[in-house]
Design a protein that fits this description.
36% helix; globular; 20% strand; single chain; alpha+beta; Translation Initiation Factor IF3
């Protein structure tokens, strides 16, 4: 189920303070990149991705391709940076805990 616009706005606010965890280089969207992103989404849920200037694909196209392949939601795309979210129901959560991306 896609995230609502309210959830997207909250995630955008949370993502503002994050640094990119994954960098897309000149090779573009490779299998190893998808694996690294899958691991990052599994442990952090909210992940910022930076695209190098030498990357052939646009940030918007890359974010949608990644989101489709990894079953994630695109929170936002600004310039050469995109933010992705995928909830992990297996993460242990206790009342009052900080979210996994903090």
């Amino acid at each position: 189920m896609p995230i609502s616009s309210k959830e997207r706005a909250e995630l955008r606010a949370e993502a503002h303070h994050l640094s990119p965890l994954v960098h897309v280089g000149h090779q573009g969207l490779t299998d190893s990149l998808f694996q690294a992103l899958d691991d990052a989404l599994r442990t952090h849920e909210l992940v910022k991705v930076a695209l190098a200037k030498t990357t052939d694909v646009s940030a918007k196209d890359a974010s949608h391709a990644i989101a489709e392949k990894l079953r994630a939601d695109v929170v936002q795309t600004i310039g050469r940076t995109c933010t992705l979210y995928r909830r992990n129901p297996d993460l242990k959560r206790k009342q009052g805990d900080l979210p996994p991306w903090r």
